[in-house]
Structures are given as C-alpha cells and as structure tokens.
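Input set for joint prediction.
Command: fold jointly, output tokens.
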Amino acid sequence: MNEIREICLIEDDKIQIFLLKKFIEKTGLVKSVNIFENGKLAFDELKRRVDTNGELPEIIFLDINMPVWDGWQFYESFLKLPGNGSVTTFILTSSLSDVDKIKGKKFELEDRYLLKPLKFEKLQSILGSFCGVMD
Amino acid sequence: MKKTKSDQNINESEYHSTKRLFDYSTDMMCVAGFDGYFKLLNPAWTKTLGWSSEELMSKPRIDYVHPDDIDNTQNVNSEIIDGEEVYKFENRYRCKNGDYKWLSWSSYPSPGEEIMFGVARDVTASKAAEEEMAKTFEKFNFLGLHLDGVLYQFRLDPDGSFHLPYVSPSIEKIYGISPADVKENPDFILDIIHPDDLDGFLDSIQISAVTLEKWQEIYRVILQDGRMLWIEGNATPQKLEDGSILWHGYIQDITVRKDAELENKKLTTAIEQNPASIIITDIDGRIEYVNPSFVNLTGFTFDEARGEKPNILKSGDHTDEFYRNLWDTISSGKIWKGNMFNRKKNGELYWESAIISPVLDNEGQIMNYLSIKEDITQSLAAETKIKDSELYHRTLLQSIPDMVFVLNDEGTFLDFKTSHNDDLYSDPDAFINNDIRNIMPDKVVQKIMAAVLQCLNTEQTLTFEYSLVIKNSTRFFSANMVSFGNRKVITTVRNITEYRNNLDQIQDLLDIEEKQNESLHTFTHIVSHNLRIHTANMLGILMLLEMEDTKTFENQFVQLLKESSINLEETIGHLIEVLEIKLEKEKNFEKTNLLETVRKAISGLQYSANKNDVRQVIDIPEDITVNVVPSYLDNIILHLLDNGIRYCDKTKDSYVRISSIIEDDYTIIIIKDNGVGLDLEMYGEQLFDMYKKFHDKSTSNGLGLFMTKNQVEAMGGHIEVESELTKGTTFKVYLPNKNE
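tokens >
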C-alpha cells in the first residue's frame, strides 16, 4: 500500500484542524499534513512551490467559509496553476446551503463534496481508495 | 262766255240748257274781270251769301273776302291773271248777315278777254267739320300724350298688308319710337314681340279679324335696349267697305302689374308648398286661409277650417294663461314664439313649434294674424333623447372624481370641470376660455401643450404625469388625453399624490422586505456555516472520543451530549432547508412524469412498507406530466407515502394508495391511507406547522408536513387534508398546470 506523501488542509477552524489531523494520523496512510488557515496563505505557498519546481500535495481538503480568501477564491486561482491536475481537491464544509452545493457543481467538485462532521470511516475509505488507486 | 254768230242757231238750245244749268247750279259760278269786279254771277251766290248780284258786282270782290284771307286771295288772283288755273283754293266770303262762308274755288283765266271763270262751292259745313275734327284730333293727341298707354288704329288690308293709320304720341314713351316712324315702318310692332308670344299674337288678330270680336291679348315685347315689357292690348275691330279691318285700340305697359302678379304667385306658391303649416286669420282670429301642409297635418280641410278659430286644434293641455299671453303678445303687435301641444282632427296629439305674428297694413294697423307652425313631435323626442344623453354624460362626468378639461390646439380651455377645488392651481372660474399660459406654470404648460400636439397628430390616447406645487405641497397628477372633434382634446386628470405616496411606502416596504430577505440570507449563511460548524465539531470530538477513550464515551452524560448534538445538527439542517425554499427566487421547474416519480418513491419505501405490512397502490396514468421542481415533488410524494406507511393501523389490511386527477387548472395527487387517522378538529390548524408532532412515534421528526406544505406552495400549489381517527387520512396535493 502506498503512502500519501502530503495532504493540504485549508481550514480556519481550530477544532476542525485538530480533529482532521487526528483522523488523518489515525488512518496511518499519510506522511505529512500541511495546514493553511485561509485560501490566500495556501495559494501563496502552492504558487511558490510551482515557481520553484517544488512538489504539490496529492490531496487538498478545502473549507469554504474562511477569512481573507474563501475556498472558492482559492480554488479558482489554484486551477490556473500549472500542474494542478495532479492534485485531488475535496471540499470539506459545514455548509448545508444549496448555494455552495451549486458552486461545487460548477467546479465539478460535486463528487468530492464532503460535509462536516466527516466520519472517520468515510475519511478512511477515501484515503484508502486513494492509496489503492495509486497502486 | 264767247258767242259767235255762225253757230248761234245751232247753239240756241245748248245755250238755254247751259243757262239753265248756270241758273240752277248749287255751286256758285261767276265771270270775274281782271279789274277785280264780278262780271256775271249765277243765283247760287245770292242763295249762299245773301247778297244780290248787283250788290256783289258793285264792289271789288276783295271787299267781301275775310280780312285774314285777303293776302292769299290776292296772290291767287295774280297767279290766275298770269294764266294759271287754280283748284281747290279756299277762302272766306262775308255774307249779308255778317257771317263768313268758306268757298272752295276752281278758276281759270281767259287772258284775251281779261276775265276769269270761277266755280266756288260752299264748303263751310265740311270745313267746320274738318276744323272740329282737327280740334278733336288735337285733344285726342293731347290726351294720348298724357295716357300711359298708346291709342292706335290698326288696319289690316285684304291683301294681308297692315298699316297704322293712327298712333298716339305716347308710343314714344313705351316703345321708344315716334308715331311717324312706326307709321312708316309698321313691321316694327311685330319685330319687337317676344318670339314665344308672336304666334299667339298673330293668331289672336286673325281670330278677331274673322269674328270681329274684341281683340284682347297680353304679350311681351323686347325693346331695342334689351328691356322686356309686358303689354296688354285691347282693340275693337271694324270691317270697312273695301274689306279691310280697322281696329281702334289701346295698348298699355303692364310690366309692373305683371311683375307684381309673378311676385304674388311666387309668394303664394311658397305658402302653398311650404312644409310648415300656415294659418292666416282675421283680426278676430277667424281662419281665412290654411295651406295644404296644415290640411295634411291636422286633417282639417280648408273648408272645414275656414271661419273657425285655431282653437279647433286645442288639446286642453295649455292653461288659459298660456293662450291669454299669446293673444296679448300678438294683439299688441309683437311676435309670439312657442311650442304648443295640439290635437288633430282624428284626436291624435302632437307638438308643434309656432311663430304667430300680426300682419300690419300701410297705416300700421293689424290686418291679419299669420301663424307658421311645424310639427316637432319627432324632433322633440329626438331632442329629449339628446338632452337625456347629455344629462347622462354630464352626470357621468360629475360623478367621476377626476378633473376634466377640454383644450383646443391653441391652449384655450373650452370646458373645465372638477369636484376638488383644493387640487387646483388657480381659481376654478379662471379656466374656461382662458389660455393655459395664463394659468399654469411654464413647465407644466410645455408638458401639456406638447401632449396636445402629439395627441392631435397621432390621434392616440396619451397618458402622462405632471406635478404642481399647491399650497406648499407637491401634488402629482396623472392625465389621460384623447383628441376629438376639430383639433380639441379632452383630458381627464387624476390626483395621484396619495397613490404616489403609497407607492413610495410600498417601495419602502419592499426595501424593508428586501433587507429582511438579505438578513435572512445572512442568517441562513450564519446558521449553515458558523452555527453548524460547532455541531460538526461537537460530533467530530465525540467521534474522536469514541475512538480514543471508549469508556468516557460510554458515560451517560456524554451519550446525552451526543444525542443533543445529533438533534441540534438535524434541526439546523431542517432550518436551512426551510429557509432555502422560502428564499430561493428562481426555482428550476421541469416537466416531470408523475408516474415515474411515484414509482421511484414507492421503490424507495418498499422496505419500510413490507416491514409494516402496508400495500402501496398506484393508480396514475402513464402520460401525466407535471411542471414542478423535481426534487420538491420527490420529497412531497416520498413524505406523504411515508406518512401513510408510518401511521398504518396494524389491525387492518393496511394500504396507501396514490392516484391523480386533472381538474380545471390543477393536477391533483391524492394519497389516501386507511391508517390511524387524525383528529382534525383538534389539530387541523396546526397540522402543517413546524415541529408539531401528532403521534408518539419516535420516527417522526415533526418537520415533514411543514416542509411538504412549503414545497407545494413554493410551486404555486396548495395542499388539503381530510382525516378521521381510526378511518385514515387523505392528502390532496394541488399542482398548477400553468407553471412556467
């Protein structure tokens, strides 16, 4: 089974960060988790990596409702970065709002639209299948 | 008298005969000497003049001649002495008794013997007659000159030619030709006769010539200056011995009379043929004349009406006062006008308008009364109709609260009406016949006049608004302008100030609602993100706790906390769903096959139905399509079927049956079960409220019917419920067919 090298968690809520980090660690499938507290910080870092030929993470868990840049602002810009196709982005939101669901659909993320609280089993199966696919 | 001896014997008897002739002749014969004395006289001289021969021969002849004739006589004597013969020389000789007698002489001279022979005839009588005639003739001419007409004689000879032996000088006055000229050229009198009258004129002369009856003819002549005259001729014919006919006559110019006759005829015709009925009465009011229109209208003939008073038409509808007023008016020489309600001979009643006027003679005295009347029964009815109609429209106009005015294209108010003087910029009396520019402020004038021109040019109804500051507050007016008649517009104006203010208030309310909606959106956002993140976190922490510290997790308090967290999450979820149904402005309607939707729901509920032993029955035609938000319809059907299964009656052969009917503008989906039912009297009003639970079943979350109702209504439909405890429940979902 392959290990996931890096997951980016773009999330401003401390408890969510804590919970997700815990769950991800518990799966034992991920080598490193990088946290960005808003979309702008995440984009700046990823752009820097692209500019310096650094590696992009395999998976991004993206919250929507965040200060500075929200999830959608980030994703829109991120899609313009070269090499973004190698990254799988999951929306992870507490929003039940249709507005957000429709936006997700627009970005073709409707299959990767996760609602908080994310159950451990769900996370495990997502990351598991991800590793399986990697085989 | 010459005598020779040789034929003395032979001539003896001849002499005696001659002597006898000489002695017995009634003419006077004489032999007179050149010396001025008679030499021989026959007895006729003494018989005629009374003088004896001796007396006559004793003096020069000239002594017996009338002093006035002496010169003439001596001249003639000289001529005779010179050898000329004289005939019909006339002079007067004095008689013995002092009278003078006219003698007409024939004389010839015998120069050798210095004597003359003369025969004189006493022509005193015929001379007197002649003189008398000349005098008469003179008088006659004089008379003729002063006559308006012409005295004349007209002679028609057997050979057809005609002459005018006498024409009085007055012909010059009428025909412009002198008597001498017309005698010279008698054709003149035929030449000037009007061509249309010439044949009749000639015929009448022929007839008079043959019958010798009096000739009488009226004819026209056309004078050289172009004037036409009417001439009346009268003449008496007389047959002369030579077979010619002589008329003694008189012609006169009757043009004036004829014109008057024609004029009279014209007036008579005008009265006779007048469509108005005309009555002429004497001063006592007795009818002297009625025209045919009167006869036609009233049914009374002329003969029946004549001598009667016009009160034969009296209907009895007018007061005595009315008639008294009429009489007072016309008998004082004034004209009376008015309408009368009268009765015809057959009893039929009618209205007539009458003008009755006195007819005055030259001295200004009333001779007659003239009444001209017109049947106005019809026009009165029409007038009443028009009056009614006008009253109707006027009333209509008065009854509408709008201000109405009529303007012409120059901006003059032709009519004006309002019931709200408070809305006026100017005094209400200032409008009619005044120019708009004198009344309204320039800005409004420009707007209105521009509208007037556009309205007149396009002939379309125009609506516009304007505002005026009246009594320190701005009033808004909405005007409707229509063109009519000859370059005029009628405009209705409504004060819409209140409406405008209301509109502002409505806008305010809309703004408020918009704001509230926005806050609701914000609230939804807060709920869905900021609030929900905490429930998500709580649940996440509990999940982590379950994984890492099972013992603590199983603590009863933690379990209660978990249950509350789950409930809170669900509640928030519902809340968001409801708010989103309410807030969503554009719903995505799609044509959806009802049967397919139902089948999907039924298969989804099959497990639950089997478990509860409830039959699901579908009675929906395949081709029913509804225009809906598909996800809403899914929810509605799923929920109502689930409801039927959930509240089944375990003691019965349970079923839930779904059917549809199309009624008017709705497709109605009916979901009927034979479950436990509801006491609608108790819960009816609350059935669809949020968080109302009517059963103790724990599976109910209390939001289902509320959601269902909201979704149905969000699609423009409504939902009805019928239910009875222990009998079952029926839901009817009405979905409009016209959803866009």
